[in-house]
């Protein structure tokens, strides 16, 4: 009986709201559903009405209506750094005061009643960063107590854009925002007070939540609140798949420098390593994300590794060619008869070919000496590059360019 009287009171509120309507037939819109038109009694003359009413926001005097929001984050999954998207599962608990729904608990001793959400005013929410939103319950029900306090629970799954900071990938840490806007009201009518609760119990993820916070931006034309998820990469997969193969190829190239320059297998060994790394580098470029600013340091690191392998291979080819040319000159000497005459003449005169042989021998030793010096310099360069990269990876910072919507003089978000 009490619920019937409460519904009659709601119908009376709808009848009195028609006096303030100024537009054609409209219905309240929510972020997850469009409301059907109000159901009027069959004996009521619709042609007599100039408009069909919309449920109005509760009046809170000169102050905006305060809606308390609790955001329960139950899961974060499918973090895609190539598409800059993240999927999450949330539960919203919204509560506010609507004195129009209050009743005398002494006459009607009921602790609470449950009403369909389309029979009373509810804030329509839209997620600014969302690519899609799946509201789990298309017909949620609100709970009302005798004082007029309303509680509404909304469960949703959404995929949103996230500006990942990937400079230190795979040890990156990023803040992903979910901005909830109530476009059907103004900041003078509605105000949010938000809190966040981390209810994630599973840690079997590549990205884990390290922090969770909420804020209410000030001086906004539209009432809104923002949930910030701080995601951190556990890095194990990227280290095994990217860093370990790269370091192994670089170590194999350094060990290849220990092979004698005269060995024919050294060139084949170096060329094979270079071709293998080129294949690895091509797949690596597709696996790493790209950005307009603050690209991952790994992109530059693996490019430096490629240049080191190219320089090492070119050094081996050039010095091996120099050594082979010296060997050909050493093998090409005078004819046997001429060598016999010079042998008879060698007893009475100093041998003029001795300096030539020493020069040829010095040519061979020069190529080997240059190879030895290059090997030492190459090892020092490789070790220094590793220390430099480690230092940059741990302490380097990069500030991304401002978004076009926030940059000046492009404009910015509208504010009061």
Annotated CATH homologous superfamily of the largest domain: Neurotransmitter-gated ion-channel ligand-binding domain
**CATH architecture tag of the largest domain:** Distorted Sandwich
Shape: rod-shaped
- Our estimate of the beta-strand percent is 15-25%
Radius of gyration from CA coordinates: 38 Å
**CATH topology of the largest domain, which one?**
Acetylcholine Binding Protein, Chain: A
- Helical content, roughly? 25-40%
Catalogue the unreliable spans: 15-53, 335-339, 352-360
- How many beta strands in the DSSP annotation? 11
- Briefly note the structural class of the backbone: alpha+beta
Reading the helices and strands in chain order gives HEEEEEEEEEEEHHHHH
User: What value does the average pLDDT take?
Assistant: 79
Largest β sheet strand count, sense and barrel closure: 7 strands, mixed
Tally of domains = 2
Return the CATH class of the largest domain.
Answer: Mainly Beta
- Helix run count: 6
Q: End-to-end span in angstroms? A: 47 Å
Notes on the protein architecture:
With 416 residues, this protein is α+β, with helices and mostly antiparallel strands. 36% of the residues lie in helices and 23% in strands. It contains six helices and eleven strands. The strands form two sheets. Strands 1, 2, 3, 5, 6, 7 and 9 form a seven-stranded mixed sheet that branches. Strands 4-8-11-10 form a four-stranded antiparallel sheet, with no helix packed on it. Strand 6 and strand 7 (149-161) form a beta hairpin. Helix 2 (236-256) packs antiparallel against helix 3.
